[in-house]
Amino acid sequence: MEFLVDLGVAASSAVTITWKTADGTAKAGNDYVTQTSKQLTIPAGQTTAAIRVPTSQDTVDEDDEGLTVEVERVTGGLAIGRGTAVGLIRDCDS
Hints:
The protein has 94 residues and is mainly β. It is 0% helix and 44% strand.
């Protein structure tokens, strides 16, 4: 699962984003690989990068399930607020 981080404008120095996952209806260890205090760096001059959260493959028929990615801290001269994004794991088992 990927979450696109877009700065809007390129920064003059690298921007580091510290983030983590949080359970919704999807559960860490069962539906996806938990991520705690992971870092994503967007190099100077670039505007985007992707946060990647590995999901688990199973053959259990279940409802679609969600998880949250939470931005904890941003360094590199940008003043942006804490952000969250919700991802949905679609069930494709019949």
